[in-house]
Amino acid sequence: MAASHSDAIERAARVRLMIFDVDGVLTDGGLMFTGAGDTMKVFNSLDGHGAKLLREAGIDTAIITGRRSEIVAARAKELKITHLFQGVEDKRVAFEQLLADTGVEREACGYMGDDWPDLGVMLQCGFATAPANAHPDVLERVHWVSERRGGNGAVRELCDLVLRAQGRYDALLAQACAPGHR
Fold it and tell me: Which positions are annotated as binding substrate (predicted)?
């Protein structure tokens, strides 16, 4: 399904809600376990800032993940991602709930995922995306593939693309460069 560059830009321009998977997208997919059985995850700060920039531009964000983790809840809170669905067996169910909660149409939703559990949502939304290291079956079915790997800037690359497609990137960059900006 990989779309042409111009089609991907047109789809990105329509995004009003960007949804992310966690493992393999917001993280590199690795799972670290402590001796006590706790899971640890590593998030990329560039990816996090990209999600914040989407919010600043008026684009809502969400996470739908199959695992349940206090680490993910803390990261979502830090990034002010208000729509968080964890421990989801069928991501399509969470997607339907998200559409009902936000009133956003499917065509105005973007989704970044990396493996089969994400396909049910990816095939229903207007802008399906994946990190470079996603499963081959996913890569064959998305509209756009990042050059970066999950957990290593793929989300930021996507956020920048959406912001550019919507004509908001330059203003946000100028604001960041302005004297006195923190």
Answer: 23
In DSSP notation, 41-91 reads: ----HHHHHHHHHHHHTT-EEEEE-SS--HHHHHHHHHTT--EEE-S-S-H
Max Cα–Cα distance, the chain, nearest Å:
49
Q: How many domains does the chain have?
A: 1
Query: Is 38 annotated as contributing to ligand binding?
Result: no
What pTM does this model have? 0.93
23 is in an annotated binding site: yes
pLDDT in tens, the chain (182 residues): 566 788 999 999 999 999 999 999 999 887 778 788 777 788 889 999 999 999 999 999 999 999 998 999 999 999 999 899 999 999 999 999 999 999 999 999 999 999 999 999 999 999 999 999 999 999 999 999 999 999 999 999 999 999 999 999 999 999 999 987 66
> Residue 135 is part of a domain; what is its CATH number?
3.40.50.1000
Neighbours of 36 (CB within 10 A): 5
Residue whose structure tokens are 């993940």: 65
Q: Which residues contact 103 (CB under 8 A, 6 or more apart)?
A: none
Domain that holds residue 10: 5-177
Asked if the structure places residue 81 within a domain, the reply is yes
Q: Which residues contact 37 (CB under 8 A, 6 or more apart)?
A: none
Q: Binding residue per annotation — 21? A: yes
